[in-house]
Design a protein that fits this description.
CATH architecture of the largest domain: 3-Layer(aba) Sandwich
Helix content: 40-55%
Shape: elongated
CATH class of the largest domain: Alpha Beta
Number of strands: 16
Largest sheet: 5 strands, mixed
Number of helices: 22
Strand order of the largest sheet: 1-3-2-4-5
Strand content: 5-15%
Oligomer: single chain
Structural class: alpha/beta
């Protein structure tokens, strides 16, 4: 086995050669055609190993091979493979040479549906009997050579240099099947064309990517940005969806990451270099939404821009268009969207020209569209057109095991955004884990950013005074803070509670509940909303105070 390589292969064409004469012919044709390439003089598993090494080094774009080696490589790589297989005349010549040595001939080759008819014709032409043996790998090649020997063959044709050596090892003569000049030249020319086309496609993708970036039509998120063990099955499903071009309907509560999934599907698809166009269907009135979607011609309506305007479907050509909150789209526009999905064509408002579009559609809704269909607020035919691939995103409260991973991921992103990282106190982390997150991941991001800004840089503890900035979490605060042995564990010397003397508090006579409500309100005002100090003054626990606040319906953020 030999690896014969040019100094600087530019085209990344790799040719596997079965014998030295073919190697020489390939190099001669490559010089004439001005093609740079790498030659691997090996067959079957040996060739596979060498090509795999080159591919790992990003040195392969097109493979040129023949026979069983070509088929083995085809089963292992998605790269284009050009056959350099000898033609029928080349095989006939090899069998004719073998006949001069002996009339007991064995022909060994990769299985082909045309072999039987071809060999019948050859036997008629050469007036000789030929026994046919097929193989797909080295093990089968060795076994079939042994069969040929036991069948009484004196000469074997095929199997490359390894076949010739095996034949001689069994005491038979071996003949190579040589690929003709025309076969080699044709295969190398096709490989060169493929490399040129792939290079042209890369350049076009790059131009499209730059154009999309210039317009801001870029998907920024990928599946790497999705974290949490409970989310892994959903991610695997979305990755499968990204490999095809069918329409996807994503549904789930607000803040569960529907657009993040849509961007990830786009970035993992063959359309990743194309534009990603997102539209929130609830953000625009029907009159504007139609012109945004389909564009308009000059003079289409009062206020129309000179020269008209390109629509979002046209902008998304070659990429993906994402409809968020599609359930908010009016029935009239739903009909227009359905026509586009059916015909892959748009017509600008005020125009007569039909424009073909090639854009994948991903839609999202925080509503159950099936229920909206039953209520008559969403078209059933559009729903069935959209609901080809269906992805449901669980709310955060249904995947609580993901919350620690989400916290770490979000804090990492905040560090890049703000330039510093805060350490979350154990007490605040308990609050985060206990909360039900009606706003899902978006709410978690907002609270963590608020916390980071308030606490600042370094390893700091969340002081009780900061809890007032998180009214969402306050129903859970008492349980968490009651775990502390003493209030002193929460504060350093600079923030130790200083008891204040209260001379008098005015309470109007009334029912016991009314007077209790007045007392607690006045104490909250006096202590600037600090419930720990209120509870200490009343001689009750914070938990008891929380229960009284809720029972008496007292505002919990009262300040002086």
């Amino acid at each position: 086995m030999k690896l014969i390589q040019k100094d600087k292969p530019l085209s990344k064409i790799v040719v596997t050669s079965a014998y030295p004469e073919l190697t020489a012919l390939v190099r001669e044709m490559a010089r004439k055609l001005k093609i740079d390439l790498t030659v691997v003089e090996a067959v079957l598993e040996d060739a596979l190993e060498e090509v795999r090494k080159l591919n790992e080094q990003n040195q392969v774009e097109v493979i040129v091979s023949r026979g069983a080696t070509a088929e083995l490589l085809r089963s292992q790589f998605t790269l284009p493979i050009v056959s350099i297989a000898p033609n029928e005349f080349d095989i006939l010549q090899a069998l004719a040479r073998a006949k001069e040595f002996s009339s007991t001939i064995g022909y060994i080759s990769y299985p082909s549906p045309t072999d039987v008819e071809f060999l019948l014709q050859v036997q008629s032409i050469l007036e000789v009997g030929i026994k046919h043996y097929t193989y797909r790998n080295m093990m089968e090649l060795t076994a079939q050579m042994e069969h040929a020997y036991h069948d009484g063959c004196e000469v074997v044709v095929g199997g490359g240099h390894r076949g010739v050596r095996l034949a001689k090892a069994y005491g038979m003569e071996g003949f190579l099947i040589y690929s003709s000049h025309s076969s080699v030249a044709g295969a190398l020319a096709r490989a060169g064309e493929m490399v040129a086309l792939r290079s042209q496609k890369r350049e076009e993708d790059e131009r499209q990517r730059r154009a999309s970036q210039a317009k801001g039509l870029v998907a920024h998120y990928s599946f790497r940005d999705l974290v949490g063990p409970a989310l892994q099955e959903t991610i695997l499903t979305a990755e499968r969806f990204s490999k095809v071009d069918a329409t996807v309907l994503i549904w789930g509560e607000s803040g569960t990451g529907k657009e993040l999934f849509a961007q990830s599907i786009h970035n993992n698809s063959t359309r990743c270099h194309g534009p990603f166009v997102a539209l929130n269907c609830a953000s625009l009135p029907e009159s504007l939404l139609e012109s945004e979607l389909f564009g308009y011609e000059e003079g289409a309506f009062t206020g129309a821009k000179k020269g008209g305007k390109i629509g979002l479907f046209e902008l998304a050509n070659g990429g993906t268009i994402f409809f968020d909150e599609i359930g908010k789209m009016s029935l009239n526009l739903q009909a227009g969207l359905l026509r586009v999905l059916q015909t892959k064509e748009v017509r600008r408002v005020g125009g007569g020209r039909i424009i073909s579009i090639d854009a994948r559609v991903i839609a999202a809704s925080n509503q159950n569209l099936q229920a909206e269909v039953e209520k008559g607020t969403f078209r059933d035919d559009l729903f069935y057109r959209l609901n080809v691939l269906n992805l449901y995103l669980l709310p955060v409260r249904s995947r609580r095991e993901d919350i620690p991973f989400l916290i770490d991921n979000i804090m990492g992103r905040l560090e890049k955004k703000l330039g510093f990282r805060s350490t979350i106190s154990p007490q605040f982390r308990k609050l985060l884990l206990a909360y039900n997150w009606p706003g899902n991941v978006r709410e978690l991001e907002n609270i963590l950013e608020r916390y980071t800004v308030l606490v600042g840089e370094g390893d700091q503890t969340l002081y009780c005074e900061l809890i007032i900035s998180f009214p969402e979490l306050q129903p859970f605060e008492a349980e968490v803070l009651d775990d502390l042995a003493t209030i002193g564990t929460q504060f350093d010397e600079k923030t130790t509670i200083q008891e204040e003397f209260i001379e008098s508090i005015s309470i109007r006579p009334g029912t016991l509940a009314e007077m209790e409500r007045q007392l607690i309100r006045e104490l909250l005002k006096n202590y600037n909303g600090n419930k720990t100090r209120v509870a200490a003054t009343l001689g009750i626990s914070r938990t008891t105070l929380w229960k009284r606040l809720n029972l008496l319906q007292i505002e919990q953020t009262i300040k002086k």
